[in-house]
Amino acid sequence: xxxxxxxxxxxxxxxxxxxxxxxxxxxxxxxxxxxxxxxxFECSSSRAERDFNVSSI
Length: 57
Hints:
The protein is mainly α. The protein has 1 helix and no strands. It has one helix spanning 2-52. It is rod-shaped.
């Protein structure tokens, strides 16, 4: 029974570490996507202002 507790604790620790690593990777991907979208939308809004002679609000 003692070995089962050790195994379960080790398994839980590994799952927690994997979960933390996954959260970190997802947040870095989220930042990269946000940066990409910001660049795209700023570029398209600047182009629209120039082409249609409209100022941003």
